[in-house]
Sequence to fold (408 residues):
Amino acid sequence: MKKSIYILTAILMIAGCADFKNGNPYQDTLNILTVTSVYPEGYEYAAHSGVEVTVEDTGTGNRYTSQTDESGTAVFHLSNGLYRVGISDRYEGDLFNGSADRVVVSGSDVTLKLSLAHSKAGSIVIKELYTGGCKKLPEQGDYQSDKYFIVHNNHYEVQYLDSLCFGTLSPYNSNANNAWVTKDAATGEDIFPDFVPIVQAVWQMPGDGDDFPLHPGEDAVIVFCGAIDHAAQFPLSVDLNKEDYFVCYNTTYFPNTLYHPAPGDRISTERYVDVVVKTGKANAYTISVSSPTLVIWKPQGMTMHEFVNVADNMTPVPGSSSDNVVKLPYDWVIDAVEVFDARFTTNTKRLPPSLDAGYTLQTDTYLGRSHMRHVDSDASASAGYEVLADTNNSSNDFYETEKQSLHE
Fold:
């Protein structure tokens, strides 16, 4: 997902007192929710029929879909409730996404005009994100020192991992209070900041520009915690001691050996991923077990070290006396994914629709479950290498797996 134009799409809340029901929304008293897609200026031609609009009841988890008409409008008949609305459209090489959170439907019809953000499909995409941990069987307890993610070259040309950066967002968890999102008192619209708040640390891949090529359809494994064979002790975990793996490793900033032990004998020191800047106080790198976000990017026009050395590019986390964030520019982002904790109904978006219009659900923790991007079978057959789905909407692009893809 390569960002080209962004619009801070509002997450709208239609004020009212909701009478929540857990039944079928096509029973009892029904209200009409009319959703109209609003394409960014210059792309009005893209409004068309047949675009899927999804509505999710945040109380029950039930999902309903409808198709837009020629004017870009879809209609739903819903009972009183609190809903999450999403639209994803692809027109030739352009991606359009929008989402609205906490739309209240209560006792009357609701009209929602949903602005769509424009982006382009990316070259390097996040293929898998595993942070949820597993059981320590045959021992008692839970284990979370085996986190990793995988990136994939989704392009027909060779891409280079050199200088690729990554990090997670504030707040860490999807059900936590999000101090970065403000509300317009006049319209009730939620507005995202004009930067991505990267918390705890910025990591950067090694290389001078062409040291670590990634060929079309190839993957690269990047280990957050412990490039060792975790499965040797805990069979439900994974072996992360492999020759071609990269590992986040800096004992100055993150000396906790429970999460950052010395890398295994198969890991080359040339594949150590280093810290550009640490903005938190933890002695081990923090990324959510239950509902992580992950953003990958490359700096433009300057190095990452130069960027973080500018005072205005860092700011404190509101209400925190210990953590700062890096104010990452939107147009540096290559790809992003957001995970919601399915055990809560209070999840709120941390990534705006211009970066990820949806989310993938994690149903529980410490069960070895991971988040995997779908394969685009038709595109793969045409290209001759594995092409992954990339609509810039994790609700469409990702799914939860029963176990990690690296589990043997």
Notes: Helices lie at 304-308, 377-383, 394-397.
